[in-house]
Amino acid sequence: MYSSCKQAILKVFATIEIQIAALEREISGHIDNYPHLKNMIENIKIIKGVGHLTAIVVAEMPSVDNFDHARQFTAFAGLNPQHYQSGTSVTKESRICKIGSERIRKALYMPSYNSQES
């Protein structure tokens, strides 16, 4: 019984890996059809800690020209700090605000964290 379950699970994993590879080829083909998008992704990947998938997510963002200030761009990306203070005695450590794009925030969290440590 154990080996048949293990084989079934391994088949599911293999199927998922095949589907992931097909989707990655499709995404790469789409990017290759748009030179501007490909150039943007390559430029984003130059940033330390940013890989191919993070660059794709960032490339989906609106142009920075659409924002008047860096604070607006940061808020849209969901990376602005949230400060908590209650009166004069209770002050908690700042953290990332949950307003903004969750997808972009998740993609940029580790690269931004790693860049602070360098």
TrEMBL record:
Source species, domain of life = Eukaryota
| GO BP terms in the entry | DNA transposition
Which one of the record's GO molecular function terms can you name? Answer: transposase activity
Residue ranges of every copy of the Transposase IS116/IS110/IS902 C-terminal domain listed in the record: 43-112
| Transmembrane feature ranges | none
What is the protein named? Answer: DEDD_Tnp_IS110 domain-containing protein
Which organism is the protein's source? Trichonephila clavata (Joro spider)
Query: Taxonomic classification, please?
Result: Eukaryota, Metazoa, Ecdysozoa, Arthropoda, Chelicerata
| Gene label | TV42_00015
